[in-house]
From TrEMBL:
Residues 167-294 form the Nudix hydrolase domain. It catalyses: a 5'-end NAD(+)-phospho-ribonucleoside in mRNA + H2O = a 5'-end phospho-adenosine-phospho-ribonucleoside in mRNA + beta-nicotinamide D-ribonucleotide + 2 H(+). GO terms for biological process: NAD+ catabolic process; NADP+ catabolic process. InterPro entries: NAD-cap_RNA_hydrolase_NudC, NADH_PPase-like_N, NudC-like_C, Nudix_hydrolase, NUDIX_hydrolase-like_dom_sf, NUDIX_hydrolase_CS, NUDIX_hydrolase_dom. One of its GO terms (cellular component) is cytosol. Belongs to the Nudix hydrolase family. NudC subfamily. It is an enzyme of class 3 (hydrolase). This is NAD(+) diphosphatase.
Length: 307
């Protein structure tokens, strides 16, 4: 299985030591700084195949100033700070502002075609800016937060409270279950495009280990008792704020009994059957297709197919 998963493996120095002492605005003004823009869920890419389109203060400084755009220090590339800027305050057509940078894409639509380092950088920027956008008030006392640690912490503005709030990551397990006949359990949610089958997944609950979450989700969604579960790999999934924790698990192969709510269908498939699944753009046998190539779900299925 290829490690790390897409959206992970960023080689950028996250410059933890700089966060406490530095104002991200001053860092963005640094002559060598690279600025990673974000606008209403979209990020700029250029070229074909695409690469991330980063910019600099000379090009977008006045825009950032005029919008008082939220900024986050992502890290340092040599001496050059790398800063994420949320310019969602800018009014623009649905497909993004024309800043001469290229086209504005949703990461999920472009992720699999970007260089892996670019996909990881955009995932990081997207994840932390979405957290900033959605975390503006103290969840303890309700007062506004002030930004600290170069964008990586929101501190309650009420002196008697003062609670710090850190970027949130929601842990979710994702699991490919196999049976003694070598078949894999795949299911589909009613909200997915018709024909797509994927691994089972769900959020980890308080007071639960990852292995327990695997067993619970597979039981709840498919009515199958897992015998053993083994961690394989994880993937940052900033859509909006998950960490997908991938497992391979075994079960006895009894008939699935999907819950019909979260999962409308779950069944055992042989390798031969799954190898005849197509892609979303060209579904295969019975109109079925696999999840997109940027996902850990696809990687788990591919790993099993080749195993
Ligand atoms: Zn508070």
């Amino acid at each position: 299985m290829r490690h790390p998963m897409l959206y992970g493996g960023l080689e950028l120095d996250r410059a933890h030591g700089l966060r406490h002492a530095s104002d991200p605005l001053a860092l963005a003004r640094h002559p060598g700084a690279r600025i990673c823009l974000y606008w209403r869920g979209r990020q700029p890419v250029t070229g074909e195949p695409p690469v991330a389109a980063l910019t600099d203060w000379a090009s977008v400084g006045s825009l950032i100033d005029s919008l008082a755009a939220p900024l986050v220090l992502l890290g340092q590339d040599g001496e050059a700070p790398v800063v994420a800027a949320d310019i969602s305050g800018l009014e623009a057509p649905e497909d993004g502002p024309d800043l001469g940078l290229g086209r504005w894409v949703m990461l999920r639509s472009a992720g699999g075609t970007l260089p892996r380092q670019d996909a990881a950088l955009l995932a990081y920027a997207r994840g932390i800016l979405i957290w900033r956008e959605r975390t503006r008030f103290c969840s303890v006392c309700g007062q506004p937060l002030t930004v600290a640690d170069a964008g990586h912490c929101g501190k309650c503005s009420d002196d008697t409270c003062g609670a710090p709030h850190f970027p949130r990551t929601d842990s979710a397990i994702i699991v490919l279950v196999t049976d003694p006949q070598g078949r894999a359990l795949l299911g589909r949610q009613p909200v997915w495009a018709p024909g797509m089958y994927s691994c089972l997944a769900g959020f980890v609950e308080p007071g639960e280990t990852l292995e327990e979450a695997v067993a619970r989700e597979v039981w709840e969604e498919a009515g199958i008792r897992v015998r053993s579960a083994r961690y394989v790999a994880s993937q940052p999934w900033p859509f909006p704020s998950s960490l997908m924790i991938g497992f391979m698990a075994t079960a006895d192969g009894e008939e699935p009994n999907p819950d019909r709510t979260e999962i409308e269908d779950a069944r055992w498939f042989t390798r031969a059957e799954v190898s005849r699944f197509g892609e979303a753009s060209a579904p295969g046998e019975h109109g079925r297709f696999l999840p997109s190539r940027d996902s850990i779900s696809r990687a788990l299925i591919q790993h099993w197919l080749e195993g």
